[in-house]
Automatic annotation (TrEMBL):
<feature type="domain" description="Peptidase M24">
    <location>
        <begin position="319"/>
        <end position="389"/>
    </location>
</feature>
<protein>
    <submittedName>
        <fullName>Creatinase/Prolidase N-terminal domain-containing protein</fullName>
    </submittedName>
</protein>
<dbReference type="Pfam" id="PF00557">
    <property type="entry name" value="Peptidase_M24"/>
</dbReference>
<dbReference type="InterPro" id="IPR000587">
    <property type="entry name" value="Creatinase_N"/>
</dbReference>
<comment type="similarity">
    <text>Belongs to the peptidase M24B family.</text>
</comment>
<dbReference type="Pfam" id="PF16189">
    <property type="entry name" value="Creatinase_N_2"/>
</dbReference>
<feature type="domain" description="Creatinase N-terminal">
    <location>
        <begin position="10"/>
        <end position="142"/>
    </location>
</feature>
<keyword id="KW-0378">Hydrolase</keyword>
<dbReference type="InterPro" id="IPR036005">
    <property type="entry name" value="Creatinase/aminopeptidase-like"/>
</dbReference>
<dbReference type="InterPro" id="IPR050422">
    <property type="entry name" value="X-Pro_aminopeptidase_P"/>
</dbReference>
<dbReference type="InterPro" id="IPR000994">
    <property type="entry name" value="Pept_M24"/>
</dbReference>
<keyword id="KW-0479">Metal-binding</keyword>
<dbReference type="GO" id="GO:0046872">
    <property type="term" value="F:metal ion binding"/>
</dbReference>
<dbReference type="GO" id="GO:0016787">
    <property type="term" value="F:hydrolase activity"/>
</dbReference>
<dbReference type="GO" id="GO:0005737">
    <property type="term" value="C:cytoplasm"/>
</dbReference>
<dbReference type="Pfam" id="PF01321">
    <property type="entry name" value="Creatinase_N"/>
</dbReference>
<dbReference type="InterPro" id="IPR029149">
    <property type="entry name" value="Creatin/AminoP/Spt16_N"/>
</dbReference>
Amino acid sequence: MTATSANHTRVAALRSEMASRDINAYIIPSEDSHQSEYIAECDARRAFISGFTGSAGLAVVTTDKAALWTDGRYFLQASRQLGEGWVLQRSGVSGVPTLEEWLNKVLPKKSKVGIDPSLITVAAARRLISSLAQEGHSLASVEKNLVDVVWKDQPARPIKPVSVLPLKYTGRSIDEKIQAIRDQINRKGTWGLVVAALDEIAWLFNLRGSDIAYNPVFFAYAVVTLTDVFLYIDEAKLSDEVRSHLEPSITVRPYGAIFKELSAISTKQQSEEIPKKVWIDSRCSLALQNAIGGENGAVESRSPIMTAKSIKNEAEIEGFRKCHIRDAAALCRYFAWLEHELVEKKNTTISEVDGAGVLERFRSELSDFVGLSFDTISSSGANGSIIHYK
């Protein structure tokens, strides 16, 4: 089966699922349920349905149309990769409609627009609902992701082991961080804080993972209250060292239990004589907000962890300094190697991939190397026009 025919088959299967649920349009974001920009293979739904593999973009399939929005970094790549029948919407270009404008233009009156509520933020959902209502359309939460339904060989969610980041690198213990967050929860007047962003969870618990390529994160949720801390994670990820690191302050719960348990805690808090709400970031998913009873159960405000982790302590600053020195040494070594190969040896067979491999080897030979922060962008000549060329 060719790539074109495979894409046609996938879109047709998705439309069949939409029809069975009376959905006129279905939105497929790039992000995962933690609103991560960079995602695991199992969450690459937009790439699966459209063929476009760039890191940013949003796809929409209607009963008879398919469109993808992406930014200027990916115009060339998207035009090459999109399957037959897809229309590339060049975001930011004059005259190109926004998602909302396009939907309001092409859909019949009072259409139902479906989306997986775990893949859209509270803020984005609110804007979309308001825009669609102008033409009588509605946004429908579809609990079972329809791309997952038609993706028969979808990769499994990774369960790679989590490791402890030592105090000499973090500069602050888990208990110190949690107490600082609790102080802010207390000042906010909420019963707790829900944490969904993977980088914030890794920072709070001084843990690192590798569930997403080039990102030291792992799939988890967390709930911090004034008396308890719950980490929702697949326990297969946890070694005895990690469990010891978390005990006794942290209660580990199954990753999939977050929505049911959060709903139960929120319901109990709302039934108290003096009801309290929970603190969520507006970047968290609509599914999480639904679990706590909607807007009435939440106080939306910037996550205190986002702010806290942006303020670096002396241990972290020193880590930055040393890392830049080591990486500069690897780059200098690479430039010297490349010049020797091209000028001294007159080697004209070096490919862009060869160069990237040598640079990674030089970096990996240095102390404290764990992995690359992103896939090396190595391009020459005309390939330099593709910003994320590989």
